[in-house]
Amino acid sequence: MQTVSLNRSYGGTQGVYKHASRETGTEMAFSVYVPPHPDGAKLPVVWYLSGLTCTHANVTEKGEFRSACAELGLIFVAPDTSPRGEGVPGDPANAYDFGLGAGFYVDATQAPFDRHYRMWSYVTAELPELVAAQFPVDPKRQSILGHSMGGHGALTAALRHPDRYRAASAFAPIVAPSRVPWGIKALGGYLGDDKQAWRRHDAVALIEDGARFRDLLVDYGDADPFLTEQLRPELLQAACDKAGLPLTLRRQAGYDHSYYFISTFMGDHLRWHATRLKA
Amino acid sequence: MQTVSLNRSYGGTQGVYKHASRETGTEMAFSVYVPPHPDGAKLPVVWYLSGLTCTHANVTEKGEFRSACAELGLIFVAPDTSPRGEGVPGDPANAYDFGLGAGFYVDATQAPFDRHYRMWSYVTAELPELVAAQFPVDPKRQSILGHSMGGHGALTAALRHPDRYRAASAFAPIVAPSRVPWGIKALGGYLGDDKQAWRRHDAVALIEDGARFRDLLVDYGDADPFLTEQLRPELLQAACDKAGLPLTLRRQAGYDHSYYFISTFMGDHLRWHATRLKA
């Protein structure tokens, strides 16, 4: 692991790091904020998965999470959203919603993407091991949140690993990728026609198939241009209602899909996580 | 005035706007955050002047000011740092510290800069008039802060207009541009050899020449790479001590010159401003 930058912030340290990933076969960058803490302490860790087109840098610069993390004593980790670099194939038409910046948190099975696009294993296994080895984290106290495509990643990770993550939440998540254009393109491209494989990367389908989580917090803005076609929070509401899974789903008036929305509610989400991480 | 973007944030509205400036003879962009407020209310306005290389966008995206502005009921305005566009001359060697992104908040007297580089009149006269006409501001309650070159701008504006600004503060300001490389280059380039003109754009010289302000807050980081050569806060301390001007000068351990530093202490500064704006 190589340190790219370190900056003091809110009494802690915002770092950016690079490492050679065995899963993606590429160099991967990520950011970690470590809040002020007593020597020797092991802290809870919050994973943040970003949306389409983002790298670790978007939330690191615009997410406004450090104030709450410093106050609550949370480590905050932001991975990249796809492999990158020479030899990594992207979208054939250079679209923003597939390939680079759009890994969708799956392990691709379809050539030519299967070699590098292993973001599921990267964010749920490889990077947690690295972070646990390099930072003062308590691996028994992890939680996960994300935005849009990263909200999809956070919800599916939580539903498939309910014992590992003590809390999960999302900003404007894609809740049913099997049924919306962004998701159909991505799951088809990375996983092919195997619809059972799609269901394991679809929060609503996972809940329909029996996956459960203690409770979920989801915020979305009613001025989000992707709301009705791509996000469809009502599908998550219906699945949770049917399954008896406690969902706090909040419609935020006037908010869009941007970091102006995310940063506004970041503190709320981190307090939700902290309550469960420290319970 | 043309609206470039509007985003709901912390219950208020973050806007970006453009207008044709009579002072600079160019199109100028700026951002304004309007916090949630009762209909018909007139709010205090805080001016933020940015540092070298910045536009309005840096603080708008990374400054983390909206949370405190929403809580305190403050409008926050961020102008650009120079004229830009076709026909605007820059640094002959394309350096970052003169010309584009480096207007130094003066009205240039030297050709070819005198035609467009009129940032002093722009930020202290033209833009305040426009903002007062277009936004729900109370022009009797204004304050000013800034970073680095913008800290220089904020301190000189406050010292020359102590009745207009009710509060002033700075992050890592250039306090004595007449005596440091960045300032000598900029003041020489824009104002020529007239050292009396330089003194009117030098906070320490203004205080030596009798300018006063009710009190000042200045933060700097002791890991700031520009501290000893360009910023020299000790010169401001000495001038304020001699003049009996109350200065709260805080050395922040481990902090550098970045927005990670600025955002950490932004809330403190805005609370300092709010106390004085509402007194």
From TrEMBL, chains A, B:
Family: Belongs to the esterase D family.
Active-site annotation: S148, D224, H257
An example Gene Ontology molecular-function term: carboxylic ester hydrolase activity
NCBIfam families in alphabetical order: fghA_ester_D
Broad class of enzyme this protein falls into: hydrolase
Protein name: S-formylglutathione hydrolase
Reaction catalysis annotation: S-formylglutathione + H2O = formate + glutathione + H(+)
Example of a GO cellular component annotation carried by this entry: cytosol
UniProtKB keywords: Hydrolase, Serine esterase
Organism, as annotated: Bradyrhizobium lablabi
